[in-house]
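Progress narrative, work stream C.
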Amino acid sequence: MHDTAFARILHSYIQIMRTFRMKSDHDKEIPRVLDDTDNRLLAALQKDAHLTAQQLGEMLNLSPSQAGRRRQRLEAEGFITDYAAKLDPARLGLHVQGFVQVHLGTHGPDQSQAFARMVDTRPEITSAWTMTGDADYLLHVYCADLPALNSLIHQVILPHPAVARVQSQIVMDQLKRDAPLPT
């Protein structure tokens, strides 16, 4: 890869991270190393976020108050960032899952920020990443059907002034659901 191409990609990445107000691993200070009990607590909560302090205590051989304090500490230190329900896309009428690779024609900060704002406003786009390699962005999308995916691509993404081309892949079957992070 040429140095200028790498510089453009890096600049686009920095701009989108600023737009989404995300922090990189370098921006976060990790105050302590997790012990085995912390790791088991995190693993348990990733499987079932509704576990009570009593249930966590039983699983971890701790008192409910000790388990609750550990959970609160892990939340305060940023290891636990959110609790969310996992929904069934098919039950919601979202029968097409896909990935869209986006190639920008221009890589300036204004174009990157405008593209990031567009991505942020579209509920069909459930995740977005800046990428190394051929594509600049990878979008994870859920749509009701193929015409809805076609509309998203041809009426929303492709008309964006910074976008040069897209390539989409439709998920045939998901072999592994979004799994818990390794702890």
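Work stream C, second folded protein:
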Amino acid sequence: MDAPAVEEQEEVTAPVQVGDTCERTVRFTRDDIAMFAQLTGDTNPLHHDVQAAQRARHGEIIASGQQTTAQMMGLAASFFSRQDDMARELLCLNFNFAFKAPVFAEQELVLHWRVATVEWNASLGGWLAHVDGKATVRNAHPCVVGRGTLLVKTGEH
């Protein structure tokens, strides 16, 4: 696939723009947390055993990190592959996450991504979007922070 000439790049509207954001609110029940842990092979008792969780540092059932990050990645994939006025294709190339605080059952968690940079990548034939994200309990500090690199293509390229 040939890259657009420099002059053409300026005329082509990227399918993602710096400052674009997406957000979703989720809430995990104790049953959601236990089921997700079981389905993913995470046998840590902090995800399903109330007594073990109460003896531990946090004192309550907590969601596994992969449960929160899966929701965050799903939000990014859904938003940046949306089919509105422009057909898009998306590949998630990379995500990195840091866990800052536990996610407890029944907490309202706000998932958020913001596009930090966008650049054309000729060899990949699409736009690289670098996104910054977080999962935050409403009115509190983030529980999870993340960065990702997405390849977004349109039908034009």
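The domain at 6-154 is CATH 3.10.129.10 (Thiol Ester Dehydrase; Chain A). No further action is required on this item.
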